Structures are given as C-alpha cells and as structure tokens.
C-alpha cells in the first residue's frame, strides 16, 4: 500500500492492480527477500505481461541479480532506501526503456558480463552481440561500401566464404537483403 500511495501522489502515474497487459506500462513488484516465491512471481509477470519490472526488495546477491534481469527487472530499489521520488524516478526510467540500480549492483552486473565474455564467448569466438569477430568485420566492410569480391580480397577469404557469412547473418536475424543487414548492424551498435 505504501508504494501505491507514493506513486498515486504523482499526476503522471495511474496505479492499477489489473494484470491486463494493456492496463499498465510498468510492473512494480515488492518483496521482503528474493525468495523462490519472488522468482515465481517475476517469471509469471515476464511470461504473461512482458512489461519492464521495478523490483523493491530487501537484499539481492549477484546470482539473484542475474535471475532478476532474466525475469524483466530493469530497476532494483533496496527496500530500506525507497522513498516517493526514487520510486517515481525508477518507474519513469523503466517506462522510457531505461533502468536504475544501486551502483554496487551495476558493478556486479558489469562484472558478470565481463566474465561471461572472457569465459564463454571469447573461447567460442563470439562477442556479446552474438556475432563472431569475422562476421562483424564483414559487416563493417559491407557498410563501408565494399562489394563481395572486395571484401574477400581485403579479408583474404574466398568470395563464397564472404557470401556464406552475409547469408548466415541474414538468416539468423531474418533480414531480406544486404541493406537490411547493414542497417541492422548499425542500429544494434555492432559496427
């Protein structure tokens, strides 16, 4: 009730209790601890309404943080430091596609991604984007205006290999042509 009253004090929020996904833009979930019941509620929310979640919780550790992010949590507020403005700020950030977390949690999350990249992705020749370094280089050269033959010469690959790389990326991301491949790579920040 306290969180609802905090949000109701802001004219740009409307507090609803409906689980109808058209009724709200952001879900706010409050929990005493990050328990199995909390995870179940978060997974159910992610599966049924597909909206960003602001989680108000007493404490959360690194392994729980990753689970929370997998469940659509984009903002985490420690229960002890919640106030009207912080909650409103978190909901606004979530609604705008952003997120908020205490600095120590952001550090843990970044450290997790560094370990993921070092221990899992790099040994398999992948990047966080899901593309190999070779695929990224082909897309970069394609975006620079080189044709398939020029890319093959630049990278010292066969034309057939370059085409296979381009078509592989097109198939993976369901793109229809090379222009869409380049546009997708630029929008996703891959090149």
Kindly summarize this structure in a few lines:
The chain has helices at residues 2-8, 36-48, 62-70, 84-95, 103-121, 133-143, 148-155, 159-172, 178-187; strands spanning 27-31, 53-57, 73-78. The chain has 191 residues and is mainly alpha-helical.
Describe the structure in your own words.
There is one protein chain. The radius of gyration is 22 Å and the shape is elongated. The model has no long low-confidence stretch (mean pLDDT 86). The N and C termini lie far apart (47 Å). It is 54% helix and 8% strand. Helix 6 packs across helix 9 and helix 7 crosses helix 8 (159-172). The protein is mainly α and 191 residues long. The protein has a three-stranded parallel beta sheet with strand order 1-2-3, sandwiched between helices. The longest helix has 19 residues, at 103-121. Helix 3 links the parallel strand 2 and strand 3 (73-78).
Multimer state: single chain
Percent of residues in helices comes to: 40-55%
**N-to-C terminal Cα separation, in Å?**
47 Å
Give the overall shape. elongated
**Helix count, per DSSP?**
9
Element layout with pairings:
Layout: H1 2-8, E1 27-31, H2 36-48, E2 53-57, H3 62-70, E3 73-78, H4 84-95, H5 103-121, H6 133-143, H7 148-155, H8 159-172, H9 178-187
Helix pairs in contact: 6-8, 6-9, 7-8
Keywords:
elongated, 3-stranded parallel β-sheet, 191 residues, mainly alpha
């Amino acid at each position: 009730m306290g969180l609802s009253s905090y949000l109701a004090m802001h004219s740009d929020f409307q507090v609803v209790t409906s689980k109808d996904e058209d009724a709200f833009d952001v879900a706010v979930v409050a929990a005493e601890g990050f328990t199995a019941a909390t995870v179940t509620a978060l997974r159910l929310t992610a599966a049924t309404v597909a909206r960003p979640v602001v989680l108000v919780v007493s404490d959360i550790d690194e392994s729980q943080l990753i689970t929370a992010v997998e469940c659509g949590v984009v903002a985490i507020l420690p229960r002890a430091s919640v106030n009207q403005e912080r909650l409103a700020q978190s909901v606004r950030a979530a609604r705008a596609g952003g997120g908020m977390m205490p600095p120590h949690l952001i550090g843990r999350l970044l450290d997790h991604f560094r370990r993921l990249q070092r221990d899992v992705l790099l040994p398999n020749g992948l990047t966080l984007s899901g593309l190999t370094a070779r695929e990224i280089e082909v897309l970069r050269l394609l975006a620079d205006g080189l044709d398939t033959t020029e890319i093959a010469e630049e990278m010292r690959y066969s034309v057939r290999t370059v085409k296979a790389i381009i078509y592989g990326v097109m198939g993976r991301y369901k793109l229809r042509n090379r222009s869409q491949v380049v546009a997708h790579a630029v929008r996703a920040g891959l090149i």
